[in-house]
Amino acid sequence: MKKILFITALAFGSLLAEAQIQTPAASPAGSVSTVVGLTDVQINYFRPRAKGRKIFGSEASVLVPFGKIWRTGANSGTRISFSDDVKVEGIPVPKGEYLILTWPGATEWTISLYKDVSLGGNTGGYDAANDAAKFKVKPEKLAEKVETMTFAIGDISDDSKSAKIQLAWENTSVKFGFFADYEDKVMKSIEASTKVDPGNYFQAAVFYLENGKDLKQALEWINKAAEGMSSPFYVTHQKAKIQKALGDKAGALATANASLESAKKADNRDYQMMNEELIKSLK
């Protein structure tokens, strides 16, 4: 009899599990990621909705009071990760994953990247010793209301070394910047990869040219690339630019003309135009 009751209970439990109803989460999970330079940046969070409530303020009725620690989102809060060491608002931050904790204010927010991610949304257990970085930023007022709390990664610089993280909710926007240097990583990659594949000399030479490094070394590498790649027009075009940067206008002009002729034979209009502009700048 006991065995029959046990089997019946198991069957009933199984039916209950199968009969569970799925409904939308009150604060759905969100994620945003991008690559800045060579660094992967990802933010995972839960997105509360305003639902007609006043979110930030000093009144007793607001959802997030000024001056109080906030988990910066719903449920277990917000996590941010960097695949490389970075600087956040000028503060060195080792690669890894952190909680984003905040203390909102009318004219100033305090933000912490918190090392102990197991804290989750339990802000009562906050310990300043676990701050990897703590800094202040100014909030901005949004022209249009944001109903659902949103994180974004934008304002990526032209050299891909810096960007800004934005939190937007209700009529408030808060941004903080970070710097992700990649030069050491590229330099090590150049050293390793050119030993394995001489074709990488081309990329190494262009990197040196575009980042104002040793131009004589760049010229040496572009010559090696030209030897190994039968001097295609895009290689000789970069060589002409390196020669120009070195002050060798005559050499640059001869190389640019050779690149132009090669581009014409290949019917590559883009490099024809780039070489024509380069030649004009050398006369």
How would you sum up this structure in a few lines?
It is built from 7 helices and 12 strands. With 283 residues, the chain is of the alpha+beta class.
Question: What are its keywords?
Answer:
alpha+beta, Serine Threonine Protein Phosphatase 5, Tetratricopeptide repeat, 2 domains, 6-stranded antiparallel sheet, 4-stranded antiparallel sheet, 12 strands, 35% helix
Topology readout:
Layout: H1 2-18, E1 29-36, E2 39-46, E3 56-57, E4 64-65, E5 79-82, E6 86-88, E7 91-93, E8 96-103, E9 109-114, E10 131-137, E11 140-154, E12 162-179, H2 183-196, H3 201-210, H4 215-228, H5 233-245, H6 249-265, H7 269-281
Parallel strand pairs: 3-4
Antiparallel strand pairs: 1-2, 2-5, 5-8, 6-7, 6-12, 8-9, 9-10, 11-12
Helix pairs in contact: 3-4, 3-5, 4-5, 5-6, 5-7, 6-7
Instruction: Bin the helical content.
Output: 25-40%
Strand order of the largest sheet: 1-2-5-8-9-10
Structural class based on helices, strands and sheet pairing: alpha+beta
Q: Let me know the number of strands.
A: 12
Integer tally of domains? 2
Shape: elongated
